[in-house]
Design brief:
- By secondary structure, this protein is an alpha+beta fold.
- The protein has one domain.
- Helix content is 61%, strand content 13%.
- The chain is built from 2 helices and 2 strands.
- It is elongated, with a radius of gyration of 19 Å.
């Protein structure tokens, strides 16, 4: 099952929960090869989606610095 990356932290959290569920199923249950492969494929898709989302978030994160006078300024991480 191919999933499109969704926006927001809630979708990342739900993807991580699904990944945990997949791992538990593969470790705990007697599943046939076809089911195991389908779960593995879904897991790989979820990992790719999460990695893309994290990379996008990392690219837009700004670092807040406090000046000597106590004021705050935003500095892009690229600087």
């Amino acid at each position: 099952m191919k999933r499109k990356p969704q926006a927001g932290p809630e979708s990342l959290v739900s993807d991580l929960r699904r990944l945990e569920e997949i791992v538990r199923q593969m470790e705990a249950e007697e599943i046939d090869l076809d089911q195991a492969l389908a779960l593995f494929e879904e897991g790989v898709g979820l990992l790719r989606s999460a990695r893309e989302r994290l990379t996008q978030a990392e690219a837009t994160v700004a670092k807040v610095l406090e000046n000597a006078d106590g004021t705050l300024r935003v500095v892009e991480l690229d600087e």
